[in-house]
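Lecture 7 notes: from sequence to structure.

We start with a single chain of 177 residues. Read the sequence below before looking at the structure.
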Amino acid sequence: MDKIAFFWNGYEPLLRIVVVGTLTYGGIVLLLRVSGKRTLLSMNAFDFIVTVAMGSAFGRILTAKHVSLAEALVTFALLISLQYSISWLETRSKKFSRFVTGEPTLLYYQGRFLEKEMKKQRVRKAEMLSAARAKKLDNLDQVEAIILETSGSLSVIKKSKQTGTSTWQSVQPNQAT
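Now the structure, written as tokens:
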């Protein structure tokens, strides 16, 4: 192997990266704008796959000389189309939506940690306490419920100040999933 070529192959490969990278980036922005805001919403498993695949494809497009701009844009169009199709099906079928995103899981309710669900979802008490602190709550006496959302985030439902109970009524202790 030529030692100079190891460090420097001339300006042409660098120019290709700048031109193809810029045009591909512009194409991705255009495709994402056309596909709608849902594409950029908080991620479920399929959204995560698309995001990782897009990053991987973008990296390959920048460094592989034999990948054309047209191939790159078709790759991104395919990935965004798949994500769009999945989200379209999600909004039209509850069964499909549950398959793709799952359902929120109740982890803490009215002063009780739901240990079985915490173990199943691999969530520690420390993580829930941290979520409560992030909501500026001093302790769990101020918390009615903590829910693990389908996006992986923890939602903290505060108790009402007037009654000491939650104003949020849709979670019951037996609804843990």
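Confidence is low (pLDDT under 50) at residues 167-177. Keep this in mind for problem set 3.
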